[in-house]
Specification:
Elements lengths: L3 H13 L38 H4 L2 H17 L1 H14 L13 H17 L2 H15 L1 E8 L8 E6 L22 E3 L5 E7 L14 E5 L3 E5 L20 H20 L3 E4 L30 E4 L7
Antiparallel strand pairs: 1-2, 1-6, 3-4, 4-5, 7-8
Length: about 325
């Protein structure tokens, strides 16, 4: 009894007159790789700081503090950076939120809307929201908490805001090696915030606070505004972190162009000698200053040439 392979080979020889047996041909193996995964002399320095740290380790308190300080400095000195943030805050927040009550009682709706408008003006809600938005972009995060002012009866509700430095781990009573804590924020195993620790005063304030006393607050009383970009991330970094190396270059380019233009404008023209018979100057007093008359036509002596400073900038 012949096998299936023998039958196929016999049929193949009968059709094409081929006497050699049929063998299976394997396709060639494809060997490919990623160019980006190769470390060469051309990219070794560029990727030297690449790491595989977790979000909390990569955005450690020390790293966030440096980026945050530089972002604030650039915001205070760069008109483009501050203008972008303030334009975005004005566009998103505007005049603040408005309340519209749609119940069947129209009189109650009007009273509630007026009460909301009065309260939002008293606590300056729109100003605080714009400030929180700018801080969120500039610092990477901002905190807000419910508070009360009894003097504003009958609506004593108010909003208190905190910068990132004021939410930090306590100096006394801190449990070292706590797995679900990150610089003043405690979370559950699912990375959900449970409570926050706030100092009574800002660590960088002018008030002298040697003990830096603070208190833990439950998550339901705190609003933490930040952009979560990685799994396990608890604290935020400035939104313009990747552009902070470029923003100062814009200011330096602007000042360099301005100084070059001022230097070029300060020297209307200068005379250059091309004759070897004229002796070289011996001291700065030999540089003479001449006043140029308006709409003047003149001739130059032999051996002198007149030129103008070129700024060499766009």
């Amino acid at each position: 009894m012949t096998s299936i392979k023998d039958r196929i080979q016999s049929a193949f020889r009968g059709l094409f007159g081929v006497q050699t047996p049929v063998t299976a041909v394997r396709p060639p193996e494809i060997q490919a790789t990623f160019d980006l995964a190769q470390t060469t002399v051309h990219n070794r320095r560029h990727w030297a700081n690449a790491d595989s740290l977790a979000a909390r380790a990569s955005m450690s308190p020390a790293v966030r503090a440096i980026i945050r300080k530089r972002s604030r400095h650039e915001f205070d000195n760069n008109s483009w950076y501050s203008g972008i943030l303030r334009t975005a805050a004005n566009h998103i927040v505007g005049c603040g939120p408005r309340l519209q009550v749609l119940t069947t009682d129209h009189d109650a709706n009007t009273r509630l809307e007026k009460a909301w408008l009065k309260w939002s003006r008293q606590v300056m809600l729109a100003d605080k929201l714009r400030m929180m938005f700018e801080t969120y972009w500039k610092d990477g995060e901002v905190f807000a908490m419910r508070t009360s002012l009894p003097s504003r009866w009958p609506i004593s509700l108010d909003i208190r805001t905190f910068e990132a430095e004021q939410c930090a781990a306590p100096w006394i009573g801190q449990r070292l090696g706590e797995p679900y804590a990150d610089d003043g924020i405690r979370t559950d195993p699912n990375n959900n915030e449970i409570e926050y620790h706030f100092y009574d005063q800002h660590p960088g304030d002018v008030v002298f606070t040697p003990t830096l006393s603070g208190k833990w607050f439950p998550d339901k009383d705190v609003v933490h505004l930040f952009r979560r970009e990685r799994p396990g991330q608890v604290r935020g970094i400035p939104r313009a972190t990747s552009a902070l190396n470029t923003l100062p270059v814009m200011r330096r380019q602007e000042m360099a162009t301005l100084l070059a233009s001022e230097t070029s404008a300060s020297f209307a023209t200068y005379l250059k000698s091309t004759s070897p018979a004229i002796p070289s100057v011996q001291s700065p007093e030999d540089f003479a200053e001449l006043e140029i008359a308006f709409n003047m036509l003149t001739t130059l002596p032999q051996g002198w040439d007149i030129s103008q400073v070129d700024s060499k900038h766009p």
